Amino acid sequence: MDDVLAPKPGMLRRLIAFPLTLMIIEFFAVAIGASLLTALFRRFFVKDTPGYFLGGLSVAVLAIVIYLAARRWIERIANDELPLPLLPRELPLGLLIGAGLFTLMTGVVALMGGIVVERVNGMGALWGMLAMAVTSGTIEEIMFRGVLLRHLEALLGTWAALAITSALFGLAHLTNPGASLFAAFAIAMEAGILLGAAYLWKRRLWIPIGIHAAWNFTQGWVFSVPVSGGKAPEGWLITSRNGPEWLTGGAFGLEASVIAMLVATVAGLLLLLRVAKQGGIRPPMWVKTAPEPITYH
C-alpha cells in the first residue's frame, strides 16, 4: 500500500536517475577528483619513497569516497559494492588471482625462451610500483566496472555492456607508449573480459581491484616489465625479453603477448561461465522480465 501511495519522482529526478546520466556524472566526478589529488601529491612526495605510496593510497581512498558518495546521495542506494567487512576476504582473493595469472603467463613465456631473469635487484622501485598498482587498480576499476559496466548493463544488458567496456578499456591504452592495435586488442580481451567477469561474479569491486592491482604490481615490480608501455621499471628481478613480439609483447610489455592474452582471457571466460550459471546475465532495459510467482505460506 505504501508503494501505491508514494509520490512519483519528478522529471528532474527521473533524468538524474537515468543510467546514462549517472554514468556521466560518476565517471567524471571520480576522474576529476583523482586527477586533482594525484597532481597535488606528486608535488609534495618524492617518488619511490613510503610517502609516495601513501599519497597514491590517499588518491585511491578519495576515488572510493567520491564513488560511494555519488551512490549514496545521487543514486540513493546503499554501499553494496565496496563493503568494508568483505575487504579482508575479497581483496586478498583478487590479489592472489592477479599475481597468480601474471606469474603463470610469465612462466610460460620463460619456458618458450621469451624472458630471462638476469639478476636479483632487491627492493628496486617498490614504493613507486605500489603507488601505481593501488591507484590504477582502484580508480580504473571504479570507472570502468563500477560506473561504465554497471550503468551500461542497466541500459543494454550484460553482454553488450561487457563488450563495450572491454573495447573501451583496450582503446584507453592505445595512447600509451609502445602501444599498437594488437596491444589494445589484447588488453580488451585479457583485462576487459577478466575484470568485467570478476565484477559480475560478486557484483562487488574488491576482487577486480585486487586482480588489477596485483597484475600491474607483479609485472612492474616482480619481473621489471613495462606496465602497459613505457620504460621498464627496476623491480625485484631484472629481466630481459628476447624473441618475436607476439611472444614478448615488444615495447608495450608482456600484456601485449599472445600468451598473456590467452591465459587471462581463458580465466575470464571460465569466470564468466560461472556468472552465467549463477544467473548473473541481465537483459537490456527494454526487455521486460516475468515477475516472480507469488508463493503463499
Kindly describe this structure.
With 297 residues, the chain is mainly α. The chain has a domain at 86-277. Helices cover 66% and strands 4% of the residues. The protein has helices at residues 2-5, 11-16, 19-44, 50-75, 87-111, 126-156, 158-172, 181-202, 206-222, 245-248, 258-277, and strands at residues 115-120, 237-241. Strands 1-2 form a two-stranded antiparallel sheet. It is globular, with a radius of gyration of 21 Å. The two termini are 20 Å apart.
Task: Summarize, please.
By secondary structure, this protein is mainly alpha-helical. The chain has a domain of 192 residues.
Write the layout of secondary structure elements.
Elements (H helix, E strand, L loop, with lengths): L1 H4 L5 H6 L2 H26 L5 H26 L11 H25 L3 E6 L5 H31 L1 H15 L8 H22 L3 H17 L14 E5 L3 H4 L9 H20 L20
Antiparallel strand pairs: 1-2
